[in-house]
Design goal:
- With about 325 residues, this protein is mainly beta.
- About 5% of the residues lie in helices and about 45% in strands.
- Strand 16 and strand 17 form a beta hairpin.
């Protein structure tokens, strides 16, 4: 009998590679020669094996449980990363390959890098992710993801990427030494580091959330076995200090069904800035949410089609 030698839960990290032009979709791009990059996460988790069970219900004259056959094997990895820039305005952040799994592009512009929603499925990238857990590799193929972004005053903001893919194998192996040198030190949400505007009005923000809500489907036929994003509906919330109604009236915007922009900018100096913004959101509801004895509003909202949020580093 062999017992594992005290494997530790925190001895884990991921490496990944996006599909290249020469790769066959859904295969192991790393095994095929793609250079993997290590992703610095915080709170990394894996659901290593998910499947459907086919019960045969054989008429064999016996009672009791019968053997099942596994089908539709999948794996899910949850990878939160710290919300930090790249160190240079026109260099993609080290976490960029991860967010590209969520149907977002990577465009290097003259003064920044943007990640916009890809609207054509044929232009989306999938990826191979290797999850190393001390002593073993969990392999995810054809990975697609959904993003959620969150920040709270006095805490480090994060982008959480939930990746779903096809089960690729679980094997023993010695890991390489991952390099996380490209990942920058994050900044806390604060007055010094963070600004927020809603409908063009600067407001005192305490908390922010925005989730892609990507609908991720597993599609298997006789010719394909893939993961794809069927639809999405971005929704989130702001908690803001209640301003004078003459300055900003969220009730009027809600009643009118108004479509308004927002912009959240985190970081001051070039190379540390991460911005999340949309040209059109609809405020859906509002509830009191006192913060340290002050009157504040918890406002939930939806990003309206054609105004998909844009994640920018600069």
């Amino acid at each position: 009998m062999s017992i594992t030698p005290g494997y530790k839960d925190n001895r884990k990290f991921i490496m990944m590679a996006l599909k290249r032009a020469q790769d066959t979709k859904g295969t192991d791009y790393i095994a095929n020669g793609a250079t993997p990059v290590a992703i610095l996460t915080t709170g990394l988790a894996v659901n290593p094996y998910q499947s459907e069970q086919i019960t045969r219900d054989l008429d064999d004259g016996q009672s009791g449980g019968q053997p099942a056959i596994q089908t539709g094997e999948r794996i899910t990895i949850t990878a939160p990363v710290e919300w930090a820039g790249s160190g240079a305005a026109t260099t993609p952040a080290a976490w960029s390959p991860l967010v590209q799994l969520a149907a977002r592009d990577e465009t290097v512009n003259a003064s920044d890098v943007t990640h916009e929603r890809i609207l054509s499925a044929s232009n989306e990238l999938d990826g191979t992710v290797y999850f190393y857990w001390e002593g073993m590799w969990h392999i995810l193929l054809a990975g697609k993801a959904s993003l959620s972004k969150a920040g709270k005053i006095g805490e480090l903001p994060k982008i959480t990427v939930e990746i779903q893919g096809i089960y690729g194998d679980t094997v023993s192996g010695t890991p390489p030494t991952p390099s996380f040198a490209a990942f920058q030190k994050p900044l806390p949400f604060s007055k010094a580091n963070t600004t927020f505007t809603l409908d063009g009005q600067a407001l005192n923000l305490y908390e922010y959330e925005l989730a892609d809500n990507n609908s991720i489907e597993h599609d298997e036929g006789t010719e394909v076995n893939q993961i794809y994003i069927d639809d999405w509906s971005e929704e989130g919330k702001f908690i803001i200090e209640a301003p004078a109604l003459s300055t900003f009236d969220p009730f009027a915007l809600i009643r009118a069904g108004a479509i308004v922009p927002f912009e959240l900018v985190h970081g001051i100096a070039a190379g540390e800035i991460v911005k999340d913004a949309s040209t059109g959101i609809q405020l859906l509801g509002i509830q009191p949410s006192p913060q340290k004895g002050k009157q504040c509003w918890d406002i939930n909202f939806r990003v309206i089609r054609g105004n998909d949020s844009v994640l920018t580093t600069a």
